[in-house]
Amino acid sequence: MDIDPDVIVLFELGPLRINATLVFSWVVMLLLIGLAWLVTRRLRVTPPRSRWQILLEAIVGYMREQIREVTGHDASRYLPFIGTLFLYISLSNLLAFVPGYHPPTGSVSTTGALALCVFLAVPTYGIAQLGVGGYLKRYLQPTPLMLPFHLLGELSRTLALAVRLFGNVMSGTMIAAVLLSVTPLIFPAVMQALGLLIGQIHAYIFAVLALVYIGSASRRQEEQS
Questions:
Q1: What is the dihedral sign for C-alpha 143, 147, 152, 153?
Q2: 114 vs 85: CA distance, rounded Å
Q3: Statement: residue 186 has pLDDT above 80
Q4: Which is nearest to 110 in space by CA: 36, 29, 208?
C-alpha cells in the first residue's frame, strides 16, 4: 500500500507525471474556493442569516480572536495568510476518511512548500510593519556576531515546521494502514476517527506557530526601538 502521495502517479501528460500530491492539492483548493463562493454569495447583515453564514462568522471570529491574543495586533493584518494556512491544512487532513484520498500534507514537498511560505512571510510582514532597516536590525542584536546564529535559527525553525507536519500526517497514515492489514475493520475505523481529530490539532498548531514567528519578529523590534 502506497502511503506517500508523491510516489502515486495518477496519469501522465507527455513528460509530466501528475502524482496524487498535485491532484489532491488541486482538489482541496477547488473545494475551498467552491465553499467560499457558496457561503459568501448571499451574505446578509441583518437576520435571517443562513446556517452556513453563521458557521463562517464563527470560524472567522474565532481565528481573529486567536490572532489578536497571540500577536497583540489587529487581526486583519494576518487573517488572510494564517486563515488560508489553517483551512488548507485542516481540510486536507479532514478528507482522509474518503476512500482513495491521500492527504497532500502527507508529502514532504507540500509541507516544505507550506513552511517556505511561512519563511517568506516572516520578513514580508516584518518589513511591511517596520521597514527594511528596522526589520534587519533584529539580526544584529545584541551584537553583529549573532547574525549567522539568527539566520540559522530562521532556517531551522522552517525545517522543523515542515518535518513536524509531514511526520505527524505520515505516521497516522502508516499506523492506519498497518492496523487495517492485521486487525478487523472496527479498530482501524476508531483510529481513523482519532486521526481526523489529531489532523485538526496539527492544522491549529501549524497555524499558531506560523503566527508566533510572524508576530514575534515585529513585536521584538517594537520593544527594542
A1: positive
A2: 8
A3: no
A4: 29
